[in-house]
Amino acid sequence: MNDAERRRQELLEQTRALYNDRRTIPAVHPRYANAYHYLYGKQQEDINEDTKGGTFGIRLFLCALMFAAFLTVDKQKQEVFHMSSSDIANEITKDMDIQEIWKSM
Hints:
By secondary structure, the protein is mainly α. The chain has helices at residues 3-18, 33-39, 44-50, 56-76, 85-93, 98-104. The mean pLDDT is 79.
């Protein structure tokens, strides 16, 4: 192999290294990042470092906590901020006209 062929080979390897898509993932929505990493072989440790946890667990815990509080209030026939559990349920299911509320603001 002469100098020109060797230089071409080096440039080809440098170009492949520069544009290699295996070192970083392409623009993937965070929701699908784990699936992409699973399909294309990124290690689990790298996946855990790259992706940040969501807030679903926290939101689920808070909803369960509020529901348990509502059930406790309902079972013991107590009032919270001068509202009974039936008043709370009525307010939740109340049909509201958002356009009227928006106009009144």
